[in-house]
What we know:
39% of the residues lie in helices and 16% in strands. It starts with 17 loop residues before the first strand and ends in a 16-residue tail after the last helix. The chain is globular. The chain is built from 12 helices and 11 strands. The chain is α/β, with parallel strands linked by helices and 352 residues long. Helix 2 (39-47) runs parallel beside helix 4 (90-101), helix 6 packs across helix 7 and helix 7 packs across helix 8. The protein has helices spanning 30-34, 39-47, 65-83, 90-101, 108-112, 129-140, 154-167, 194-212, 217-223, 255-262, 289-297, 317-336, and strands at 18-23, 51-55, 58-63, 117-119, 122-124, 143-147, 173-178, 227-231, 243-247, 270-275, 303-307.
Amino acid sequence: MTGRNGPTMTGTEPRTPAQTRIVVPESHSMVSLLGSRDEILKLIEKSVRSDVHVRGNEITLTGTLADNAFAERVFGELLTLLEKGEALTPDGVQRTVAMLSAGSDERPAEVLSLNILSRRGRTIRPKTLNQKRYVDAIDKHTIVFGIGPAGTGKTYLAMAKAVQALQAKQVNRIILTRPAVEAGERLGFLPGTLYDKIDPYLRPLYDALHDMLDPESIPRLMQAGTIEVAPLAYMRGRSLNDAFIILDEAQNTTPEQMKMFLTRLGFGSRIVVTGDVTQVDLPGGTTSGLRVVRDILDDVEDIHFATLTSVDVVRHRLVSDIVEAYGRYDAATEASTPSNRPVHARRNGRRS
């Protein structure tokens, strides 16, 4: 199967055709590499600039030396994933190409085969380079901040690392907390008991737990205090030892609340703080603790700040596009607000 890929080269640009041959080991079936009905092959052809021709277990790449070298690296990473027992998917191929295009020193096959947690045949692992760096930072540092937009896996991966640490007996308990602030609502106006009022704020944490643990075991673990899910206000005055502690939606903390939470750290504990500084629901004029904490703690040893972007969104493809579109809109709106215009441009053009 043959096809031309990538930008079309004009007649004025030098292009020296070359050929590179890849022999696929007999231990790998060509279907596992190329996909059913050549689904994976067609995606590779769209992603590389070299022409790709397959005959038997031999793949021939035709293009410039640089283009062939890139395509050869793509096939090399995919073969390594197969050797690690991973099934190739279109999403995995796209992420492999994206990581290689970014010029990272880390191999995509190492990123995409790093298993954090497995349950009922489902494996939780990082799917982007930034996600892997985030996960690695959690292993290396006592306090890690995961900052990024919705869908980047910052909370989900932190939860997986917490369950992994509990199962490995590195900690005795997991503590999950969120500030009870959401789109301007106040708890006093919500119906029911205190637990009824805070349950909607904590529900996303319960949902993640159900993905990672046997649902029948969760009530027992919570009753025993092995897993605790509570609003941030419940952390005040406590010292949390031998625990994996996650503060989610940290953009909705004040600087005072952030300080209170971080100083709950006890011996043998780890903290992961997650949030999105573009989604602050605090009342107008209130400073987000997540927005200022980096300026305060950036130079403190054993604290790491991991940044995730729209590139790291692992939900539906449209989520990444939506995040980027809102980012462009926010930037354009901020640039056009009166407070950012030159003084002489205000008041119908008169200088003030």
